[in-house]
Amino acid sequence: AAAVSKNTAAERGLGAASMASQAARHAAMRDMFLHVERRWGGLDRLVKPLPVERGPLTSAALQRLFRHESLALVVPGFVEDPAPLADALVAAAATARNWSVSSARGLESSDVTAVGGTPYNMAVAAGDTERYFAEDVAAAKQFLRTAAGGGASAVDALRCELDDAWASGCTAHRDANGRPHHCGLGRIMAGPTRWADGFVHVDALAPLSAGSGQFSANIYLRQPAGGGDLEVWPLAFSSRWEFYANAHTLSKLTSIDEADQRELRARLPAPVVVPVAAGDLALLCVQRPHAVRGWATHETRASLQSFVNFAGPDRPLTLEA
Questions:
Q1: According to DSSP H, which parts of 175-313 are helical?
Q2: CA atoms within 13 Å, Cβ hemisphere of 200
Q3: Which of 4, 123, 232, 286 has its CA 20 to 30 A from that of 252?
Q4: Where are the alpha helices (DSSP H) in 217-277?
């Protein structure tokens, strides 16, 4: 027993030493990137003022967005009467799952409840992609088509509008076996929100390119009176060097840590606020920092969200959620 006790103590000592060594390496790496950013970085060099377009969903408007000539595209009144669908999503949110966000520590809870199905990133994290393709895709489609009393859903309308506007069409994103993802899910945010100013993040931390990229389409169904607007930062890096020269700050765009969020707000330039109303559609590049403005009241924000994958001017757009 004494030998076992000594071994256990030794193992604890080795474990503590390993953790201390790892913490020291992380601190050294952080200090190195901080030095690089102070010496060669500069977020102001990554800022390019761009307009926010408001108007119909056209081929020309999509091309400008994909070429990063506009910061966002807002289509007013995309859904004529959003209230019934908003009511249905809010009612379903009581039994739905939290939409976890990916961070350096894995999936962490967010302000958002996913309604109508399981987000693909959560299915991957849970090792449950087979059920996602076998059951969840069809169930999500059926939910959205029946949530507001039957008929085609707003996500169906989005796919049709993109298919008409884009010369190469628009379809569901498919995995390596040809199985389609679902094309959109409901999102519910209930106030008071965790992040008073909004959670600053990117969905893809990658250089911007005019030849490909990841975008999102957000259909707003209900907005709180004192928040819920979109914030987008006209900031982007287009090379590995631009990232590494500013990695100390930019890496925090994948963090849900409160100290990292405060530092981002302090170091980033002022965001462009994009007002949106119930019924509007907004498209933006999710490789740019963005956030939803928080609110302190017990109001609810309801929306539909889909990722739009752009693979080139002659390739179809694909939707996934």
A1: 240-245, 247-250, 258-267
A2: 28
A3: 123
A4: 240-245, 247-250, 258-267
